[in-house]
Amino acid sequence: MPGWMNRILRVDLTEGRLTEETVDPDLARAYLGGRGWAIKYLHDEVDPRVEPLSARNKLLLATGPLTGTWAPSGARYMVVTKSPLTGALTCANSGGEFPTEMKRTGYDMFIIQGRSPRPVYLWVKDQEAELRPADHLWGLDVPSTEEAVRAETDPRARVACIGPAGERLVRMAAIMNDKHRAAGRAGVGAVMGSKNLKAVAVRGGRKVPLADPEGLAAISREVREEVAQTARQGQLVLRDYGTAYVSLMTHQAGIIPTRNFQTGLFPPARDISGYTLTEKYLLHPRPCHGCPVACGRVTRVDHPLYGGQGEGPEYETLAAFGSSCGVDDLAAITKANYLCNELGLDTISTGMTIGCAMELFEKGYLTRAEVGRSLAFGDARAVVELTRQTALRRGFGDRLAEGSHRLASDCGHPELSISAKKLEFPGYDPRGVKGMGILYATSNIGASHMKGDTIYVEMGYLSLEVDRFAWQGKPHYCKELQDIFAVIDSAGVCVFVAMRHLVDHDQSLAMTRLSRLLEAATGVGYDPAGLARAGERIYNLERLFLLGAGFSRGDDTLPPRMLREPMPEGPAKGQVVELDRMLPEYYRLRGWDQEGRPTAAKLTELGLA
Description:
The protein is an alpha+beta fold. 41% of the residues lie in helices and 13% in strands. It has a six-stranded mixed sheet with strand order 2-1-6-3-4-5. Helix 2 (34-45) packs parallel to helix 23 (528-548) and helix 13 packs parallel to helix 17.
């Protein structure tokens, strides 16, 4: 079938056996690829109650039908597994060059199962795959691992690997690719480490077969010209400033997480914004493969304590290590970001967990003896030192490595973990954007903005007039966007291009051009309604896995601070999240019962019965 390579590589680490499987065409059409394929296989093959760090859990790396094609931003892949941080499933997304190279090996997906008795890495070149010893790589950081693997395989190979954090089973460990890009959330790197798999290296020369090459090229040119026109008008802020420009915007809206979400204002927001990052540290933008936006930032910091060079930080990193920790030192935040990339950590959970620890210390629930130092909000040096300690599980870092929910619970105050389903919030306080509240509460992986970011609607990015302080209507937008994001993740494109340039703004949540791109690539008769139904199917299948893992309506909730503590100041002053009003409506729109379980009728409608 065009658009897909139609082959899956199954890697049994316990037996050291690699086998090739073909793809069921009906499954391909129904679940698209990427996130959809991976959750289908995880649901069918893994007991939802499995211990995430056991050999019985599986790790799936999956591309989509637009990955590796001419489609703008068609350079994404998904990592799907059961999370050691949350106990739920997780699906982490990354771009760069690795996903395109992976697909060009001739495989759409790698299914990794079992546990190797010794460290190994996977080397795949044009459908020739082997496991190689990695004892000599164990303990190396991400850049050193990538350089060593490329030296042993092919200088042009692309590498995804774990750093010391993944080896030490840090619950927020990431899988890093192309040195600086992260499949970051919910501990996918710890799962890879638990399997003694240090790296996956790929090199491919196979072309992705296309149903209508000329049609795909024409639609791609259309999108690229729109992006270029936006740039000529000086409005392409993602290329100019990266996602870091958001810091100033969220402060002005009163929703930037400050001092562990105690407030939504951070007066020095400009000091940690993309504008200051560009002025002081930017070397040049760096795009993912085939992306016209180029939001990636290559930066360098010359500083006696915090010097270094790498990519980032992104907005989420600035919010986590910056405002949430009360830190306005951009050099220190950037250094913490570099450490996460080098050692293999999710910047969101790491920074937010340190911010949680700072509030626990502030309120006397953690002592200097436990932490090994004072831990006040605003302590930039502590942020950098604790990031390294977390990755290496040294000193107090061993407790931080368990995530904020376990840390706060151990201190007797789980309410100070600003998380949902044990996954730390990203950089938007939902008291000032109510749709994000219902999104965080109902997301199948926990608090993630990348599973249906209602900010696009609530902050006016889709040219809709929506009151961000109102709860009415937000369940509808949340449900629609969750389904759309499932499609984007499964297709293999980036949400920034998909939401800004593939959405028909006159039909705000339609996916007109995305369906055209998929039709040109695959030849399958996708239309916007059919794609939305595919996204709904994927989302409901994830929910079934979540229910099987023991989650229930009681887990579709938010920290007490969001529900009962009004925002103390700023534009969102006095606001809380009216989750109790939104959740029943959300369930109704989903076709779920009052306990949040998909009804038999809904499962039949989606072909899941």
